[in-house]
Amino acid sequence: MERNLNLANSIFAGFNDKNGLMICGYEWGWSKEDQKLDESDSRPTVDMSIECTFSNKSLRYGPSANTWPYDKNIKKWFKFWGHPLNDENLGSDFDKCIIQTNWAYTSNADIESYNRFLEKEAVDNFIHHIEVLRPKVILFMGSKLINFLRNIDVWDRFTAIVGPEIEPLKMVQKTDFDGTRFKVYFDNFEQCQVVCLPHPSSSRGLSDEYIKLFEPELGTIITEYKKQKGIL
C-alpha cells in the first residue's frame, strides 16, 4: 500500500494505516541545496524500504533529515502543545500514529500559483489519501488548505468519506499577543477533525510564542486522539 501513496514516513499497521494523525502540507519542497544536489547528480540514494517515523526520518533519509526547517518546526509545535515526539529509533505508539503527506504530489521551490492545487491531479491525490488512510485528525500546514478543502470540487468528495460537517468552521486568532496574529481554523466532521495551521517554515512573522498559545486547543485534540487510539 505504501508504494502507491505520497508519504514521507512508513505505514505502521494498527497505528497510521487507518485512523492516524495526518500532517498535510501543500507539496514537497525543493530547496536550493536540493537543486544543487540534483544538478550535480550527487543526491544520496534513499532506501524507501527502511522504516521511519515522522519523528525520526533520519533512519531513512540520513542525518540531514534532522535539519529540515519544516519538520523541525512541527516537532517543536507538538512539544509546545504538551505532546513531545520521540525521535529515538521508531519512537512510541503515538509516533507511529503520525503520517505525513501533501495535498499534491509535486515538488517545487516556491508556490507561484495556488490555483494549481485545485487542478484535478492535485485534488485526486489528496482525496485518494483520505480514502485509503481514513485519518482521524488532519493537521493542515498552510493557511490556504482549508479553503481548498471547502472548494466545491473537493468538499463533496471529502465529506463522502469522512461524513458530514458536524460543527461550523471555527476560526481562532489569539488577540492577547503583541506580534503577527495568524488565524487557525478548526473543522469537525463525523469521522475526522481538521485543523488548519500557518505554514511552519514560510509564514513570515510566525513565532514560537504565538504557536504556544494554541496549547489549549491542540493539546486537547491530541489528548482526545490518544484516548481514542488507546495509547494515552
Automatic annotation (TrEMBL):
<protein>
    <recommendedName>
        <fullName>Uracil-DNA glycosylase-like domain-containing protein</fullName>
    </recommendedName>
</protein>
